[in-house]
Amino acid sequence: xxxxxxxxxxxxxxxxxxxxxxxxxxxxxxxxxxxxxxxxxxxxxxxxxxxxxxxxxxxxxxxxxxxxxxxxxxxxxxxxxxxxxxxxxxxxxxxxxxxxxxxxxxxxxxxxxxxxxxxxxxxxxxxxxxxxxxxxxxxxxxxxxxxxxxxxxxxxxxxxxxxxxxxxxxxxxxxxxxxxxxxxxxxxxxxxxxxxxxxxxxxxxxxxxxxxxxxxxxxxxxxxxxxxxxxxxxxxxxxxxxxxxxxxxxxxxxxxxxxxxxxxxxxxxxxxxxxxxxxxxxxxxxxxxxxxxxxxxxxxxxxxxxxxxxxxxxxxxxxxxxxxxxxxxxxxxxxxxxxxxxxxxxxxxxxxxxxxxxxxxxxxxxxxxxxxxxxxxxxxxxxxxxxxxxxxxxxxxxxxxxxxxxxxxxxxxxxxxxxxxxxxxxxxxxxxxxxxxxxxxxxxxxxxxxxxxxxxxxxxxxxxxxxxxxxxxxxxxxxxxxxxxxxxx
Length: 489
Description:
Helix content: 40-55%
Number of helices: 20
Mean pLDDT: 77
Radius of gyration: 27 Å
Distance between the termini: 46 Å
Order of helices and strands: EHEHEHEEHHHHHHEEEHHHHHHHHHHH
Low-confidence stretches: 443-489
Shape: globular
Strand content: 5-15%
């Protein structure tokens, strides 16, 4: 199940949102479950009167399986308790066929007022993680497949804090059993951008066609690439290391490993073994499967195990976090200075021009190495953006080098093996964990492929476009032909 929400600004009003909810051309069926447009109008008027920035909260519930009677009410009740919200103003059910599937799937749109009857505003702190917590609880409550993502550990911690230890243990056991973090084939922003450009939903259909072609050739990369070239799909190496892109004639692009449901290391292994079938993605676990297999681990690992986990984490953790590698975050300390330059008076502007002129004269006459101050907000923003970009590239390069180091790769392998050992019910393994004897427990893991030391072969040169059409001289090189010399060696 996927739960996501969008906050609607007061100045935007309700019209655009209401038109989206009632569109019949993109849905097989639109059913209004509750409310009228007048409820939305009154909520926007109330937000205007209170001078609130946001007026409405648009929440989407998208289950993997059809909801039974009473389950939508359970979701609404849980959402209201989590965010301390009033009842929904407007509720709509959409039934539509998902790309590549003839079965109609349902999802629900619920609109809440940001301004509460108590005079407060609707809570929005850590909303994404809280949405994931509600979704995981719903999957365990309804018996749906568990969706394990990057925020699973945060959800486990939140469930334990809220006294839901049983749910946390089930989710932790499922994480240990299947440690593959799913990656979306495309972001919501990419989907909406291509949708506006083409006038229809493009990326989901493209992904479905690629998966159909992939499965039709028995998940063998060489045969798949040859078939993709025949139908007009171009595969080439991206800017990032180990990332290959697949592109159609309309220049819509997707990351190949994300579309095929593979990790980058698995795709790199297939590049060297194009005739071997790819490993099948494990079937999503359900809470019932986890309980039947007895995979629920001990709630608190023994102290030696926890200490060993901490030592591995200190090795694995890079110097820079993901946020610290973003240019937008790096440039944040200079935003106040840029705003001050934008709002400076005429006297301040003349003073800065004079300082810059004096600094240039002293540098030219006496060779003094004086810093010339910027005289406008545009120059300052350009300098800051350039510095932030170069700094972000350097930090990202440092992080990539960090995770390529042998010590970090070894620590990652040790952590995966130790997690598997925690699931064991063998008395000898449990005793060894309590005593801190890990040498006999960390056995080689099956079913994984090491990352090849040799560089990946180039599928095709990066295409260069001129104008709206594709250049005729862009090579459409078959990956199988490119890999043939490598395979012979």
